[in-house]
Specification:
The structure holds two protein chains of two kinds. By secondary structure, chain A is mainly alpha-helical. Chain A contains 15 helices and two strands. A two-stranded antiparallel ribbon of chain A has the order 1-2. The radius of gyration of chain A is 25 Å and the shape is globular. In chain B, α19 packs across α21. The chains are: A mainly alpha, B alpha/beta.
């Protein structure tokens, strides 16, 4: 019996070696992703650093109640959703269209250089890009000079509650669509060229080929990316908004992260900040799960 | 009596600490926080040569670890460091106390170090904290020593006089629950917000501002000048801007008041963001008064007429400074020292730039001023450090003895040499300033008499003033000099402080003493939200997206969202203070 057990283990031998290679990754995950989760406790406490997590007083849902009682919370959540959904929808559409079009370019070096150029902004941080955006869209910036040239009225983009959200969404799409198109380009290359040949034989136009072969071929990836991005639906992009907004556009531009930064962290309300963070994560999980179920129901594809 | 009790209580504390730690009942510690007492002569005698003396040395060498605020470019002689220089050696020689630095950092990094130290509970024996909030947090966490009786016992008369010159507000600020929890730095008072106007533009356009020459101008004069500048664009930028303001609108910190509307507000007798005594004896929040509403009315009119920068609210501090450098704007609201770090950029870009300083007067020709928050920096001592009195002794050494000793060159040659050669004051153990409330004008008088040759350089009180005299003489001998330092020192010390001196002598100021400066328990949770509400509402009114009467909505929202409770807490706090003075 004893021997048998040992044997059974022995048989796992070769596989175990590979599993051992996962160990650093698992450790990394444990140390940096799971252990810190203990800190969630602080969301239910009046956390005082010197007393630590186990010494601070438990206050139940106090911080969550305060969060929902804050007068601006509805507005902040709706700003977050509008900006995040806008970014996801427009960003995905742009990336898909761009990758389909780029795929049609046959001259290799043109394709490569176009690709490189649209990737570029992804690698710049918002701290840098914000000053570019501010320069372009301020009252005496190039955009307003162009508007004036066409006889249109000047718009204070950064100080207008009507224009701030479109500006945020637009500039984010501009920054990211190139980079996120990489995945879609990869998806396109995995489509069997035979399908295109067959369609060509049947007299399909370019548009028909895209509609009936390219897009369905990309669908699993599109779904995957869409579902994954839903987890971030309450993270509308702290760096971007923080670097571009100002008190004039708090009304339309304040998102959960910036709000928490000002209300929670600048005022050293650690517990409150944690509570909001936890709230965001819970919403993220719920959305991820339901999107996954919906995806299974309507397209019979799941990501897990 | 008291001594006996203290010894007993210390023993109890110890036992409790052991108990509670073993039971992980850390919360119990806070209950016995008030156990620190001055060393009795007997206790001190164990360490000190002359127990209780403000300058006495320790028998055996002691060590003290510090959190040090450094600056980017101190002019230290080769070989010297923050940790080991003439000043730290002076502490070693005088007190037999060796300073080592637990951390050195500046700016944001320093705040982060302090936050880390608080969060981890591993404090250096002494360090500077930069806000009342931090001080309060340290007290709440029971991390620092009560310095009340140590201060009484050890501080020299000069030091006490300097603090007292602020009518008690300096020490008050560092006092929590009747206990002095830190040694406050002082920030100078007696200064209104000024309006700095490009004098070379006024000359160019032939505008005569301040016809009666009293240094104070009316809102109307500012308005007319701004309109002229806008219309005729003397800077030839092609894109002139009237008066730019930052979106924080206001601040109770005079030294941070550049580009704010403090000046406009005070002409209406408004003091937004200050806690004031109302007519009925109740506490009033300055931002909710009728006077503030009037100020916003004026501002809204100005915005409509294009006098206020159309991008008001979206400009950062740097953007605004750039407007002056570009010659787009020639009117700046700010403190007396704004030429040294803000307007200087205009001189760098345009050799001809010159500014005149004015202040704003109200309808009765008076200048309304609020007493500044006397201190935002504190030296604190770690709870449990054996020689808390050393903090007061170091204070004595640098801010009394070294500052006032006329014979320093012989008694403290090395430190005196530092002062002479202008080695940065940040290299002292404590990077704070402690001066009497009147030192701004005292220094001014030194500078003026120094320039006129009425006193010799040796009679000038501070090294800084000595250097300023040199710079200003350079400027006076050549007003078109390329020496921007000479330009800025002349503008800040002569134009700026000079105006304050003149107005003080003419008795033009009407002072408002704030009723309260600090935070209350519920502010910790609601204040950030209330500030946001205030800022947003004010900007909406000024930019015209809401009518002036929206102010009343703001006031009622402000009260509902926690303002009333804060006022109640402040009144309670003041009442309890009056009961136990």
């Amino acid at each position: 019996m004893k021997q048998g057990k040992w044997k059974a283990r022995g048989r796992l031998g070769p596989g175990a070696m590979y599993h051992m290679m996962m160990l650093p990754g698992i450790l990394f995950l444990l140390v940096f992703s799971y252990v810190p989760m203990v800190g969630i406790i602080t969301a239910f406490q009046d956390y005082i650093p010197a007393k630590g997590m186990f010494g601070s007083e438990f206050v139940g849902l106090k911080h969550f109640m305060y969060m929902f009682k804050l007068p601006d919370i509805a507005q902040v959540v709706s700003n977050t959703l509008v900006i995040a959904i806008g970014k996801i929808l427009l960003g995905t559409m742009m990336a898909i269209i761009f990758s389909v079009l780029l795929n049609e370019i046959r001259i290799k070096y043109v394709k490569k250089s176009v690709q490189t150029i649209v990737y570029l902004p992804h690698f710049l941080s918002w701290v840098v890009l914000a000053s570019v955006v501010v320069n372009m869209f301020s009252l005496d910036g190039i955009v307003n000079q162009m508007l004036a040239f066409f006889g249109l009225e000047n718009i204070n983009f950064l100080g207008s509650n009507t224009w701030f959200q479109p500006l945020i969404i637009g500039t984010d799409v501009w920054k990211e669509f190139g980079y996120s198109s990489i995945v879609y380009l990869a998806a396109i290359t995995s489509i069997d060229p035979g399908l295109y040949e067959a369609a060509g034989m049947d007299g399909a136009s370019w548009w028909r080929k895209v509609w009936h072969i390219t897009l369905p071929g990309m669908l699993p990836i599109i779904l995957l990316m869409g579902v994954m991005s839903l987890t971030n639906i309450l993270s509308a992009g702290f760096d971007q908004v923080y670097n571009l907004y100002n008190p004039v556009v708090y009304e339309s531009g304040d998102i959960l992260d910036t709000y928490v930064y000002r209300i929670g962290l600048v005022g050293r309300q650690y517990s409150f900040g944690t509570a909001v963070g936890l709230f965001k994560s819970v919403i993220g999980i719920v959305l991820l799960m339901s999107a996954n179920q919906l995806a299974k129901k309507y397209t019979d594809r799941k990501i897990f | 009596m008291r001594t006996k009790w203290s010894i007993k209580s210390k023993r109890v504390t110890k036992r409790l600490a052991v108990l509670s730690m073993s039971a992980l009942m850390v919360a119990a510690l806070a209950a016995c926080g008030d156990s620190s007492n001055p060393p009795t002569a007997e206790e001190a005698g164990k360490y000190e040569v002359t127990p209780g003396d403000p300058f006495s040395a320790y028998k055996d060498e002691i060590t003290v670890t510090m959190g040090r605020v450094t600056t980017a470019n101190p002019k230290l002689p080769a070989g010297d460091t923050y940790e080991n220089n003439a000043y730290t050696r002076l502490v070693k020689d005088t007190f037999n106390a060796q300073i080592t630095d637990q951390f050195e950092a500046n700016g944001e990094d320093y705040s982060r170090q302090v936050s880390l130290a608080i969060a981890s509970g591993e404090l250096p024996d002494m360090m500077r904290v930069d806000s009342k909030d931090e001080l309060k947090e340290l007290v709440d966490n029971d991390l620092i020593e009560d310095l009340t009786s140590i201060y009484d016992q050890y501080a020299t008369d000069n030091i006490k006089q300097m603090y007292d010159s602020y009518d008690g507000r300096a020490l008050d600020n560092a006092t929590i629950d009747g206990r002095l929890m830190g040694l406050p730095a002082t920030s100078l008072d007696s200064a209104p917000t000024m309006v700095w106007v490009r004098q070379d533009w006024l000359d160019l356009l032939g505008i005569q501002l301040d016809a009666d020459g009293d240094g104070a101008i009316s809102l109307n004069e500012v308005e007319q000048t701004a309109l002229e500048f806008l219309k005729r664009d003397p800077g030839q930028s092609g894109n002139p801007v009237g008066i730019p303001f930052v979106n924080t609108m206001n601040t109770t910190d005079y030294n941070g008041s550049a580009y704010t509307m403090l000046g406009v507000a005070s002409t209406e007798g408004a003091f937004p963001q200050y806690w004031m005594n109302g007519e009925d004896g109740k506490i009033v929040y300055g931002s909710t008064t009728e006077e503030t509403k009037k100020m916003l009315g004026t501002m809204a009119d100005w915005f409509k007429n294009g006098i206020i920068d159309p991008q008001f609210g979206t400009r950062t501090f740097d953007d605004i400074t750039a407007l002056y450098a570009n010659g787009q704007s020639g009117i700046a609201f700010g403190p007396w020292h704004i030429p040294d770090w803000g307007l200087i950029s205009a001189k760098q870009m345009d050799k001809n730039a010159k500014f005149s300083a004015y202040t704003l007067e109200d309808a009765n020709g008076k200048v309304n001023v609020a007493h500044a928050n006397p201190s935002n920096q504190f030296i604190v001592v770690r709870k449990g450090y054996e020689h808390p009195e050393l903090a007061v002794k170091i204070l004595n050494l640098f801010y009394d003895k070294l500052a006032n000793d006329k014979d320093a060159a012989t008694t403290m040659p090395e430190a005196a040499k530092y002062q002479e050669t202008g080695v940065d004051g940040s290299t002292r153990p404590f990077n704070i300033e402690v001066n009497s409330a009147t030192s701004l004008l005292d220094d001014y008088s030194d500078v003026v008499r120094g320039i006129k040759g009425e006193i010799s350089l040796d009679e000038v009180r501070t090294t800084e003033s000595k250097n300023n005299i040199g710079s200003i003489k350079t400027y006076l001998s050549d007003m078109d000099t390329d020496d921007v330092t000479a330009w800025s020192k002349y503008h800040s010390r002569i134009n700026g402080v000079g105006l304050i001196d003149k107005l003080t002598q003419e008795n033009k100021f009407v002072w408002m003493t704030p009723a309260f400066s600090g935070t209350t328990p519920s502010m910790k949770q609601t204040w950030a939200n209330l500030t946001k509400l205030e800022q947003e509402s004010f900007i909406k009114i000024v930019t015209g997206s809401e009518p002036l009467d929206y102010f009343d909505t703001f006031v009622s929202n402000w009260k509902k969202q926690g303002g009333d409770q804060v006022i109640q807490e402040i009144e309670d706090e003041i009442a309890s203070k009056n009961k136990h003075p």
